[in-house]
Amino acid sequence: MTTSLQFDSNTMRVILAEILESLTTCENALNLEDAKSKAGNDMLKVMQYVYPIVVSTQMNVIKKYGLPEGREGIIKFTRSVVAFEKDDRVVADLHRQIRSFYLPPVNVSSAVTSHV
């Protein structure tokens, strides 16, 4: 069953905040800490151990808002978040905080250098 849901910016903020809150609950925080410990600095292991916990937590939250469970729901949700974060700094920041659980920070240089 495909669901055509429309979220506004405020709803997206609420969902993202709920995901963040859920990620920091005692049980999830312990699971994430253990997974990060197992993964160390190995990005493949981070994707193997940490990322599934984050995605599972997201799925548990987004299904309450009518999105389908599983891959389809995560894809729809992520596409919606990306669309909103272009115009909403709060959504972008909340999404960045969630991604920080499994992605290292990326430093982008504001200076553009030319290699001629």
From TrEMBL:
Pfam families: P_C10. Belongs to the UPF0456 family. InterPro entries: P_C10. One of its GO terms (cellular component) is cytoplasm. One of its GO terms (biological process) is post-embryonic development. Signal peptide: none annotated. Keywords: Cytoplasm. PANTHER family: PROTEIN C10. This is Protein C10. It is found in: Cytoplasm.
